[in-house]
Amino acid sequence: xxxxxxxxxxxxxxxxxxxxxxxxxxxxxxxxxxxxxxxxxxxxxxxxxxxxxxxxxxxxxxxxxxxxxxxxxxxxxxxxxxxxxxxxxxxxxxxxxxxxxxxxxxxxxxxxxxxxxxxxxxxxxxxxxxxxxxxxxxxxxxxxxxxxxxxxxxxxxxxxxxxxxxxxxxxxxxxxxxxxxxxxxxxxxxxxxxxxxxxxxxxxxxxxxxxxxxxxxxxxxxxxxxxxxxxxxxxxxxxxxxxxxxxxxxxxxxxxxxxxxxxxxxxxxxxxxxxxxxxxxxxxxxxxxxxxxxxxxxxxxxxxxxxxxxxxxxxxxxxxxxxxxxxxxxxxxxxxxxxxxxxxxxxxxxxxxxxxxxxxxxxxxxxxxxxxxxxxxxxxxxxxxxxxxxxxxx
Length: 394
Description:
By secondary structure, the protein is mainly beta. The protein is built from one helix and 34 strands. Strand 21 (246-251) and strand 22 form a beta hairpin. The radius of gyration is 20 Å and the shape is globular. The chain starts with 35 loop residues before the first strand and ends with a strand. The model has no long low-confidence stretch (mean pLDDT 97).
């Protein structure tokens, strides 16, 4: 039997920006020691950057020496293909290294540092093609104390980047660096979340959880189509999810979860809040929609929630606070702290069904904030300098 090739996992949260792998035929349960470790490397530098894939390469970022760098690795063994400078290295809000995941279209790689350096590289050689500093060039400004953490994402031929500032929160560039539009009606400081392409009532738009609420931005013009007002105290991190015209968001610091119904009257949109729960606080780690249920962690539990009603289907301690991804009917949940425990959980709204767990080897002393990723039947776990690759197929 042959399987169709998977779409490239070419940006943060994957090609459809939903954090759902298309790998199939994976292990339905894990042995006690976890899936087989294929290889590991320990030269990625400091930071929390995620992983993107294209062809035979993996792309990520890290702080190495005096520089924040973008890098390409051989997908088969993790060995370095190239390393190129993005900007200076260093800490923002006590945390060292980049937080953003590169986006790659096969020819170009787009990288965003913790200080706002935005650089485009040739994907094959690592040669810098163009770049700049969003603070100096665009008056960019991030919320609170933790630097620029949004990831560039693709929307058609445009690259979408939250930069923040009074001239507009989001900028769309073409792939040669020309600015296409800026969302002048939204002037929040840059959040730690990224934009999410969506189509609501036939209109292509970008969803963004920002400091003052969740918004729909016209993909073609940058105009704000609608806004669901909610506070964003200190940190808004996880990207929105939507089912049709229902948009769900969640953040921490006593804000919690909100569901909005987006209503279109003629050419105008409006957002109507349909539920909220201040107790369900997802700090970061991501939201994943499977069917009509959203899965995410709070500071203590893994939660399954019905997106249409806001009703909680179940909660389970699982690993406590962490990040997650989806592949072949299951969630892979990664603990933020402690031993970095990784758990396989069935994406089943009826009940919590755990199907395996193991502790990450060679664990660092930092929080494990980088999302797990499943590509071509393999699980990738990054912990600062370390990258682990596991075989998930029988």
